[in-house]
Amino acid sequence: MSDDLATWRQWIGRGETREDLAAPFPPHALIQTFDTGDARLKTGDALPPLWHWLYFLDTTPRSKLGPDGLPGRGDFMPPVSLPRRMWAGSRFTFHDAPLKLGDTLRRESAITAIEGKSGSTGEMVFVTVRHRVFGAAGLAVEEEIDGVYREAAKPGETQKAGRPAPTDPTWSKTITPDPVLLFRFSALTFNPHRIHYDQPYTTTTEGYPGLIVHGPLMCLLQVELARRSVPDRKMKSFALRALAPVYDRAPFDVQARREADGSLTTWIRSPDGAMAQQGKAVFA
Amino acid sequence: MTAIIDKLEHYRSWIGRTDTREDLVTAYPVRAMMATLETGDPAPRIGDELPPYWHMFYFLEAAPASQIGPDGHPKRGGFLPPVDLPRRMNAGNRIELIQPVRIGDTVSREARVTDVQGKTGGSGAMVFVTVRNTISGKDGPAIVHEQDLVYRGDPAPDAKPATPKPAPTDATWSRTVTPDPVLLFRYSALVFVGHRIHYDLPYVTQVEGYPGLLVHGPLMGLMQLELARRENPGRRVPRYEFRATSPVYHTAPFTVNARAEKDGTVTTWIANAQGALCQQGKVTFAT
After folding, report:
1. Which sequence spans correspond to the domains of chain A?
2. What digits encode the pLDDT tens for the residues A234-258?
3. A94 CB within 8 Å of a chain B CB
4. Closest by Cβ to A186, choosing from B32, B62, B189
5. Domain A2-283, CATH 3.30.70.890 — does that match?
6. Touching check for A184 and chain B: CB below 8 Å?
7. Rounded CA gap, A114 and B285, in Å?
8. pTM
9. Cα B254 from chain centroid?
C-alpha cells in the first residue's frame, strides 16, 4: 500500500471552490427535524454554528456514485482503494463574521494531509480536507475534516469495546435515532451514503449491526447542546474526535460538562455507555 | 365502510380551505435533480426557466418531528381533511403552465381544496380529495396544478391485487430505469418526503406488506414528461397530465415510454417489468 499511498498523496493541495445561496428552507427543515420550537429564521438572521453544512451540497451525477452511494474517488478526493469510509474528527474556528440567511456563500476547500496507518482492523488512510467559508461579512468559518478509509469488515469482526463515557455531565439530552431522523439529516445534507438509510446494504454488505448515525449529526447535536446551554456566549471553536460508530438500534445521549476554564467538554454516550465522540467547545 | 361515508359531510366542510406560502426558486434543487436524472444539462443559473413540473421541488413541507407518524409522513389534519383511511395515493395530476417561472424568482403558492367525494366499491370505501395549487410570480399566475388524492382502506388479507392492464407496446421513444435505493433516496431528499415506503426496506416489507420499496409516483410522472420534451426539443409544454394506476417497486427495472400522436400530443406511460401499465400521461405541446 505504500506505493499507493505515495500516489494518493499527490492529491494534497488539490482545491475546489463552491458558491451557494443561504436559502431559507434548509434551516427551517433542520429546526423542524430537531423539533426545538425555535422561530423560523428570517433573511439577515445569523446561521447557528455548523449550519453552513446545509449548503454547498454535493450533486455528483448518479452514474459517478459508487456502490456505497458516495461519489466515486479520484476527482477531488484521492482514489483510495479501501472500501469503508467514515468521519474521524474535525476542528472548527468560528470568526466574528456570522453567515446570514440570504447571503451568497463561498467555500474554498483544499486537501491538506493524507496519512497511512496500520491498526487492529488492518490498513487505514486518513485524509484531511480544509474548508474556509465566507459570507457577506467575510471569512466566517474555518474547518478541518478528517476522513478515514478502512478495509472491508472481516467475517466475525467485532467493534472493540470503547472507553466508558464520563458520568458527570452538566447537561444531557437523549436522542432516539429512528430511520426518519437519519433520513431527514441525509436529505438535508444530500448525502447519498447508503449506510444511513439502506438497512439491508448496511448489515449485509458492510457488516454493521444497523444503520449508522451520521458522525456530523452527532457532532452538530453536541454543538447545539453547547450553544443552548450557555446562550449568552459566542462559540469561538469546537474540536471533535469520533471514536466509535452509533447505530439506529437504541437511544444515545448527547452530554456536556462545564469546565473550570469556561470551556465545555461534550460527548456522545452510546447505548452501552461507551464514549462514541468527544468534543470541546471554547467560547469568547 | 358506511362510517366513512357518514363522515363525508364533515370532510366536505374542508372544501374551500386554502394554504398559502412563499418560496424562493433556488438553483440547488434543479442542479441536484439534473445530476440525479443525469440530464447532462448545463448548471442552472439565475434567470433560467424552471423546466415544466419541476415546481415540485419548492414549497416543501417540513413537519416537526413530533408530528411525524410511524410511516414517516406528517400526521393528518390541518389543511387536508382528516380522512380516516390508512392508504393515501396521489392518483391524478393536471398541470397547466401559463407563463415561465425562473430561478431567482420569489413565488407564492395557494393550495385550495376544491372537491371531496366518497365512494364504496369492490375494494371498500374510498375518499377522493381534489387540491388546486396556483403558483404565482410577480406577473400573476404561472402554474396551476390540480392533484387528485385517493384515500382507501388496507386490502383484505385474502384480497387479490387487481391485475393491471397491459401497457401499449408501440412506443415511439422508450427508456429503461433501474430504480435503486440511491435514486429513490435522492428524490425523497429533494422533495423532503420522509415517507418510509421509499427507503426503509424492513418497514415497507414487514409493516406495510409491499414486496419492495415504492417508486415515487411524481418521480415517474416527471420522467414521462422529461422523455417527451427531450425528444421534442424547442417545443413549449402548456399542459401535462398523468394518472397513476398501479405501484412500481424497486425490485425490477421499469420503462418510461412516449408515443407521438397525429394531433401533435404525446401519450406517455410507465410499464413495469411484466409489461403492465402503471401510469399514463399526456403531454400537450404549443402549436
Report:
1. 2-283
2. 999 999 999 999 999 999 999 999 9
3. no
4. B189
5. no
6. yes
7. 54
8. 0.95
9. 17
